[in-house]
Structures are given as structure tokens and as C-alpha cells.
């Protein structure tokens, strides 16, 4: 049985389901708020602008550029968010925050040619 508040699929290490989150990703100050759906449960998450910039290897401060990189890196960001969710203490609630260090373990860095930020 999974810890309280943790979807059973996560407790077993099953990858996330393909359901579409209820809310689109949105810019909020210095982070992006987004959702992942696990076993039918919507989990609120955030990723810092710095984490996106570090993972992309590009450092634009324009919200449109950061959002474009978020969309490109979203699968990797969601892997990091799900990993953090699995590691949460029983009963922990609130946003699952993704930082630069969390993305280091979530996959290889993207190739520079794939970067979507415009000069």
C-alpha cells in the first residue's frame, strides 16, 4: 500500500499515465507552474527559471523563451517531478518543486542545436 497521498502507481515505480493535466503550464514570477497526472490524480508542480536555463544551457530571461524551453524539456522535468514525488515523506503536501540539481539526475543534457531560445 502506498504512503498516504501517494498514488499507487508512483509507489510501485510505474511511469506516469498519459492523461492531460487540467491546467496548461503557466509562468509565475521566476518559475513555471505545471501539473502531472499520476494514476488519475493531478499533482501540482513548479520548476524554477534557473533550472530550465541550466538544463537548456541557455540564459534568456524572456518569459516566452523560458516557456519554450520548458515545453522542450517537459518530459525530463516531469521525470524529475515524479521522482521527487516518490521520495516525499508520508503526508507531505503542496507543490512538488523541481530545481537545477533535480534535473541532473533526470536525463542527459540536450544538444545545443536543439535549443529553442532565440537570440
From TrEMBL:
The protein's name: DUF1488 family protein
Region (Disordered): 1-25, 100-119
A Pfam family per the record: DUF1488
SUPFAM superfamilies, alphabetized: Shew3726-like
Top-level division of the source organism's lineage: Bacteria
InterPro entries assigned: DUF1488 (IPR009962), Shew3726-like_sf (IPR036692)
Amino acid at each position: 500500500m502506498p504512503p498516504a497521498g501517494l498514488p499507487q502507481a508512483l509507489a510501485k515505480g510505474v511511469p506516469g499515465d498519459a492523461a492531460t493535466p487540467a491546467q496548461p503550464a503557466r509562468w509565475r514570477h521566476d518559475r513555471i507552474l505545471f501539473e502531472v497526472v499520476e494514476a488519475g490524480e493531478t499533482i501540482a508542480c513548479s520548476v524554477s527559471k534557473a533550472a530550465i536555463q541550466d538544463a537548456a544551457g541557455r540564459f534568456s530571461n524572456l518569459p516566452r523563451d523560458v516557456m519554450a524551453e520548458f515545453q522542450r524539456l517537459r518530459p525530463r522535468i516531469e521525470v524529475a517531478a515524479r521522482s521527487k514525488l516518490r521520495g516525499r515523506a508520508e503526508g507531505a503536501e503542496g507543490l512538488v518543486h523541481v530545481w537545477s540539481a533535480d534535473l541532473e539526475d533526470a536525463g542527459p543534457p540536450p544538444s545545443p542545436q536543439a535549443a529553442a531560445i532565440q537570440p
